[in-house]
Structure formats: C-alpha cells, structure tokens
Amino acid sequence: MPTTRAVRNSLTILASAAVLSATVVGVAGATPPGIPSAATAKSDLAGLTVKADGSLDGYSRDKFPHWIDQGNSCNTREVVLKRDGTNVKTGSDCAPTSGSWFSPYDGATWTAASDVDIDHVVPLADAWRTGASAWTTAQRQAYANDLTDPQLIAVTDNVNQQKGDKSPDQWKPPLTSYWCTYAEMWVAVKAKFDLTVNTAEKSALTDMLGRC
C-alpha cells in the first residue's frame, strides 16, 4: 500500500503535468495556422529561387491594403488579436476590451492590445523586393491579410518595430528558442507566394532550421 505522502506526491506530479499540458496547449493555440514541419520547411527552402533582392523603387505600404474587413465588424488585425490572445473580450466594434497576449518573439505578455502589433512574418517591403512588385493590388491585399498561412502573428509592438523589413540574416526573434518556428513560418510564406530568397537569407534560414 502506498503511504499518504507517496499518494500526495503522486497527485502533485499529476497536477503539475496537467498544468504543463494546459500551458503547452494554450501557447500552441496562439500560433498562426499552417506552420510546416522542419522537414517540410527544409524541403521548401531548397526549392526556393535564390537571387539578389530587387529594388524598393515604387514601394508603399498603401500598395498592400491591409486590415481589411473580415466580417462580423472585425478587420484583419482584430481577427488575429482574438486568435492569438487569451480570454479576449471585444466590444460591438470587435476592438478588444480585455485579454492577454503572449509574444513568442520575446516571451513578453501584454494585457493591452495597444502594446501588441500584428507582424507580417515576411514583411511587405521584403515581399516587394522579392516578387510582389509584379503583383496586382488585389494579390498584394490578399498577401497582407492572409489568415490561412503563417504570415500574421501578434507580437510585442517595439520588437516588431525593431524588426522592420529585415530578413532573417539581419534580424531574428530575441528568443533563440523560437528561431526554428520563425524559420518554418518564413519559408512557408515564401514558398506559398513564390517569393525569392537571397544567399545570406537562405544561409540564415538553413542555420535556424538546423535548431529544430
């Protein structure tokens, strides 16, 4: 027969495991859809066209109409805030009134939506330099509001601003533990939209996927 202490210890271990499981599920639920496995990302990376980035001539964020209406009074930003947040409550206009957001780039948690940016994993300017300059406005709008691929994610606003339009050879998430997932998302978007990568970018992505 187990002692009372042994039973108590077993219950503590089980409870801790349940909490850990719930935490992992919660974090996983806050990630964008369509993140490929490392093996798929490596295969997709090998298939991307490698060439020098094009010019930013003619680029404007206005050429990528974003935060468009997604129905139910919600725009794209608000949809992602609800998707990536925890216990998010919204007003009749769909703007969040409460909730919390965990930023996987830096590990910070925020309780005000104003502290959170919606990052385009592959930035609009990078897309322009690597193929989107030849797209129609409708194609660029679809790219900038893509909710079916791992292209949009809620993160700490100043971290997103530090990233700017940099590719992975120039900027990586502060948390090295997220580098694998970030590279998987980046490659998935480039592959989906047939965007090119430059040599330094491909090398950085290869190294990041090597951490998976």
TrEMBL record:
Residues 1-30 form the signal peptide. InterPro entries: GmrSD_C (IPR011089). The keyword Ligase does not apply. Residues 111-207 form the GmrSD restriction endonucleases C-terminal domain. The keyword Signal applies. Keywords: Signal. It comes from the Bacteria. This is GmrSD restriction endonucleases C-terminal domain-containing protein. It comes from Amycolatopsis saalfeldensis.
